[in-house]
Amino acid sequence: MKSSFFCSLLGAILMTNAGLKADDAPKEPAKDTAKEAPQDPNLIKGWGRWQDPDRDCRTRIDAGKLLVWIPGTAHDLSVEQNQMNAPMILQETQGDFDIEVKISGTFTPGEAAVQGRTPYQGAGLVVALDNNNYLRLERAVYVGGGQGHHYVNFEVRLNGQISRIGQSTDFPVPENVPVILRLKKRGNQVQGQVNITGENWEQVGIKTFTDGAKFQAGVAAVNATTAPLTVQFENIKVTPVERSTVRPR
Fold it and tell me: Is the full-model pTM beyond 0.85?
């Protein structure tokens, strides 16, 4: 009934407006830009969403490189210590994937800023299912015995508990040398790799993680000392991989 009514009404209008032409049809209304969603100020193109829980860190892009500055106060990713305030830049990914990034900077720890922990600074990759289940692979330094120990730190938290803190003897690296880090996730197995020369990848270890539909992956910087930390990330790559039951290698 409604269709017949509108057709009749349209016919009457055309009869009384003999000069009406197709060109006289109403034009598409202009976009109401006021109704468009505002751009997310925390979204960094090519990297992900900037997260700074304490709102006291800084970041900027310089010639495609991501610089992150943290003040000389505790900024950690240790759920078992109820300390989850390190700055991160994360993007959503799913299934199996590889993620890698190059890290450089001068790591010079001050005094300890996290109770029960030695002075520590680190920056690198993070993959998280949620705040209780995540991995960290970092170019790091901690102070012990009066000297700094530079190494690649690979550790995992499951259900809010740490399975094993990385040791400086796991994979020592030269002081303040840029490194490329890579995480390869295959099912519930994640392999950590490091490249110092720019040519050869070396294995840091394989950790049992948790599988899930979606993850947050990206970069993070940790400062557990009284000295500020500035790090530089570049050439981040997140590569989806077809689901496989084969262990990463």
Answer: no
73-122, pLDDT tens digit by residue?
999 999 999 999 999 999 999 999 999 999 999 999 999 998 888 999 99
Using an 8 Å Cβ cutoff, are 80 and 157 in contact?
yes
- Strand bridging mode 189-195 / 43-44: unpaired
For the chain, give the DSSP string. -HHHHHHHHHHHHHHH-TT--GGGSPPPPPP-GGGSPPP-TTEETTTEEEE-TTS--EEEEETTEEEEEE-SS-B-EEGGGTEE---EEEEEEESEEEEEEEEEE-----SB-STTS--EEEEEEEEEEETTEEEEEEEEEEEETTEEEEEEEEEEEETTEEEE---TTTSB--TT--EEEEEEEETTEEEEEEESSSS--EEEEEEE----SEEEEEEEEEE-BSS-EEEEEEEEEEEEE---SSPP-
| Rounded Cα–Cα distance for residues 206 and 41 (Å) | 36
Mean confidence (pLDDT) of the chain: 86
Close Cβ partners of 86 (under 8 Å, ≥ 6 residues apart): 70, 75, 76, 77, 220, 221, 222, 223
